[in-house]
Amino acid sequence: MKIIALFQIDVAWPTDVSTSPCLPPLAYVIFVGLVAGLFVVMQILDMVNFIPHIGGFYLVYLTAWSLLLQTTTLVLLFISTLWGYTLLETREPQNAGADAAAAKANVPFFVRFTLALWYICQPISMIVMILYWTTVNRFWRPLPATHYDYWAHLFNWLVLLLSLFMSNLPWSVRNSSWAVIYSVVYFVWTILHHRLEIGNGRPCANYPDDKCPLYDIIDWNKPGPTFVVLAAAWVGLLTVLCIYTGFFRCRDAYVRLRWSRWRQANKAKCW
């Protein structure tokens, strides 16, 4: 049961999903829709740019996995947000305690599934950004980068981070388990990719095409250095998850501060 609890998603439906600490409900729905639309457009452009050159090998890379997941998640989140908004507009006021308990007990599976994906997208977007600018295109000696590179390894993370602070979606440390699962899946994929001799769609200097590693730093032809790199990546993941816990706490502290000021202002008006 304790293991199952790690994957539990506690959210007050529809309030947490369809409201914002900064925007009215309808404005927040529009904001989420615009973000989802932006990701869909950029996903299409990214695929149009890369697939003609590398074909199906597009799908072997962590960046492609993450972009597809982010786009899918934001479309599902927009549907969930709009759905919740319609419920907020039509439901009748109920007893506060009973209503809160029911809100957490009656969360649709679609919404829980969407949030599980969202808990992956947020920290993984930062991980992808860090890995790109430190191992693939090192920021201290950068190679020329296209706007696709900047979108996939920087701007998408900034937009996702903005959406985090604009939302009321909850977070707890145990929600980190979803990002850990995603990382394990990709770790296993790197091994399968090597064993099946898939290649990466591009020629490489040191190996036949079908033995080319996914990334120069994840080369299972040299397992020793690769294990060191992956161990460092796991430490980085745990650090990023701690950072995201801090992000959520900062957002929640801001919400509590605004709520406190609102109560004080209304109390003063009553007197």
UniProtKB/TrEMBL annotation:
Q: In which organism is this protein found?
A: Symbiodinium natans
> Membrane-spanning regions, if any?
26-45, 57-83, 116-136, 148-169, 175-192, 227-248
| Presence of keyword Transmembrane | yes
- Alphabetical UniProt keywords: Membrane, Transmembrane, Transmembrane helix
What is the designated name of this protein? Scn10a protein
- GO CC terms of this entry: membrane
Coiled-coil positions:
none
